[in-house]
Design goal:
The chain is an all-alpha fold and 107 residues long. Helix content is 82%, strand content 0%. The protein has a single domain, classed as Four Helix Bundle (Hemerythrin (Met), subunit A).
């Protein structure tokens, strides 16, 4: 289950506009930087690139209490750290889906 904007606002002790801005920045950066590089790493079967990008997504999502995205990225990071990339594209797609849901909650 995803945390609501209101719950995040209360947990972080900041106002709603700041929460929305932080999440928007995370989504924009992840969509424009991390995800394209992650997909390229998956397609090239470059486990180190996949691990680094998944780690970046995991940490940022965790800071914003986006636990579903963070958990998926953690799974991808763990798998790629041992060279297991077979499920990477599926996990990548799941991350995209969760990000879409988060983006929709901001509007």
């Amino acid at each position: 289950m995803m945390i609501t904007i209101e719950e995040l606002t209360e947990e972080l002790g900041i106002d709603r506009e700041d929460v929305v801005e932080f999440i928007s920045v995370f989504l924009d950066y992840t969509e424009n930087e991390d995800l394209p590089a992650l997909l390229e790493g998956i397609n090239k079967r470059d486990a180190e690139v996949v691990r680094k990008r998944a780690h970046s997504i995991k940490g940022a999502a965790l800071n914003l209490m986006l636990s579903e995205i963070s958990s998926l990225a953690a799974q991808l990071e763990k798998n790629s750290a041992v060279g297991k990339l077979d499920d990477s594209l599926s996990i990548y797609t799941d991350i995209l889906e969760r990000m879409k849901v988060v983006r929709e909650t901001l509007t």
